[in-house]
Design brief:
mainly alpha, 6 helices, elongated
């Protein structure tokens, strides 16, 4: 395998990582429908779960334990701040070449939640694939 080929493979892997990281961050931080859960409301619910666990029957206890685990995971994710700007910058650098190489359209990016401004910054337009 030539050095040129190895470099092209490495570049493709780097672009793929940048795209994946940005799309995962968008998915994680996408606004959800319904009432917003705040860290405070999750902590209050965790306290109520601890109280309910004392008197719950085994089946109810099982569901409460799972809800507690879910809430603790949600809380830790809410506490972990993601630098979306840095991920977006990496995405902008990689997206055009990645789109051209993989045949990804403007509409596909938009459907996944990538903003029009971000695509414009990446050099991806509606008419380009």
């Amino acid at each position: 395998m030539s050095d040129e080929h190895k470099a092209a493979l490495a570049e493709g892997r780097a672009q793929g990582r940048a795209i994946r990281a940005y799309l995962e961050a968008l998915e994680t931080h996408r606004p959800r429908r319904g009432r917003k859960r705040t860290p405070e409301s999750m902590r209050k619910r965790l306290q109520r779960i601890d109280t309910e666990l004392e008197t719950a029957d085994p089946m109810r206890r099982l569901h409460l334990v799972q809800e507690r685990l879910d809430l603790e995971g949600e809380l830790s994710a809410a506490d972990a701040k993601v630098d979306l700007t840095a991920l977006e910058e990496e995405f902008v650098q990689a997206a055009k070449a990645y789109s051209q190489r993989k045949g990804i359209s403007y509409a596909a990016w938009r459907e996944l939640g990538v903003s029009a401004a971000t695509l414009r910054a990446a050099g991806i337009s509606r008419g380009a694939a």
